[in-house]
Amino acid sequence: MGLAKSEIFTAEQNEIANFAKAFGHPARVAILQHLFKINACICGDLVQEIGLAQPTISQHLKELKQLGLIKGTIDGTSVCYCIDTDNWEKMKSKMGTLLHLNIPSKTDCC
Amino acid sequence: MGLAKSEIFTAEQNEIANFAKAFGHPARVAILQHLFKINACICGDLVQEIGLAQPTISQHLKELKQLGLIKGTIDGTSVCYCIDTDNWEKMKSKMGTLLHLNIPSKTDCC
DNA sequence: TTGCTTAATCGTAATATTGCAATATAACAA
DNA sequence: TTGTTATATTGCAATATTACGATTAAGCAA
Fold this sequence. Notes:
Chains A, B: GO terms for molecular function: DNA binding; DNA-binding transcription factor activity. Two copies of one chain form a homodimer. In chain A, strands 1-3-2 form a three-stranded antiparallel beta sheet.
């Protein structure tokens, strides 16, 4: 079907899955890593940096923006993107509830 | 196209994306949360717990197993699943390289 | 105005993912 | 053996994702 039955899961489970999907493509990982590395807003050169066509990059940026992980501000003919620090921290917190769950030790039976 | 151009990205970027894809579906999030909550190997009741058909759960379990995040041991007619603690820690470390990147502060221009 | 640059959107093709009915397999019980 | 239970696999339909050429829109320069 291709359509996840999100209605049978909790809001938290769906939220974690949605954030995870954002990281589920290497281009988006590369974009985020580059934004962190530059440590500033970056105007324009993501297409050359990543190596995908301009519409493809634009689409990936749109997804990251819709999730709130990055924000873009218009600067003349170009758009500057950077990490949305507040939302990034919120995302880290959400993901942390899954990733940092304590590892079973005592009753591990495998 | 639906096919990611993984060859133009680093091994790390692809690895992070692959782990993230595992968390990119609420059913798999729910499965992992349940395994952590039970804090032991669990035989059989994942279908009732999650609320999807048995073949669907089996498929999600297969994906998690292929990534090494869980392991299953055969116990008679049933299979017991639990978190693969070693690989879980490795995954956390990989994901951490992206999630815990320092937030830009000084040169933030947006 | 015209032309150039930059980024978003549209349209479309190819591949991936999700979900489940039907079936297969495997272990055990009687 | 036969029947039961539990899980995996197969096959398929529906939807999602990825990628990019073509186009559009918007700002700026001459």
